[in-house]
């Protein structure tokens, strides 16, 4: 199922262990940060420094060099951590 380009984020915020994304159609999706160990381990500054990318279909975290797609959030895709970064994420 390819949702890219159809669903756009308008707002992103964090709670202690959750990322919340408000969509243009009014829905709010909430995903455990455990799905994204890089965000779970990130500082507040690293998490809060993000931009909506690709017309709102992605979220870019420049301090983490990380991107999350909104369709990936909806589909429950988890972060794929390269072996060289596993020690930081665990």
Question: In summary, what is this structure?
Answer:
By secondary structure, this protein is an alpha+beta fold.
Task: Give structural notes.
Strands 1-2-3 form a three-stranded antiparallel sheet. Strands 4-5-6 form a three-stranded antiparallel sheet. The chain is 21% helix and 32% strand. It has four helices and six strands; from the N terminus they run βββααβββαα.
Mean pLDDT: 88
What low-confidence regions span 5 or more consecutive residues with pLDDT below 50? 1-5
**Helical/strand content category:** alpha+beta
H and E order? EEEHHEEEHH
Task: Give helix % range.
Answer: 10-25%
Calculate the terminal CA-CA distance, rounded to whole Å: 31 Å
Helix count, per DSSP? 4
- Order of strands across the biggest sheet? 1-2-3
Main beta sheet: 3 strands, antiparallel
- Provide the β-strand percentage band: 25-35%
Total number of beta strands: 6
Radius of gyration: 13 Å
How would you sum up the global shape?
Answer: globular
């Amino acid at each position: 199922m390819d949702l890219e380009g159809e669903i756009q984020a308008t707002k992103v915020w964090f709670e202690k262990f959750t990322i919340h994304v408000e969509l243009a159609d009014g829905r709010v999706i909430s995903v455990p940060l455990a799905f994204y160990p890089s965000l779970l381990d990130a500082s507040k500054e690293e998490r809060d420094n993000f931009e909506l990318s690709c017309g709102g279909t992605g979220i870019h975290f420049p301090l983490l060099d990380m991107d999350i797609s909104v369709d990936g959030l909806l589909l429950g895709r988890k972060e794929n951590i390269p072996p060289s970064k596993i020690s930081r994420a665990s």
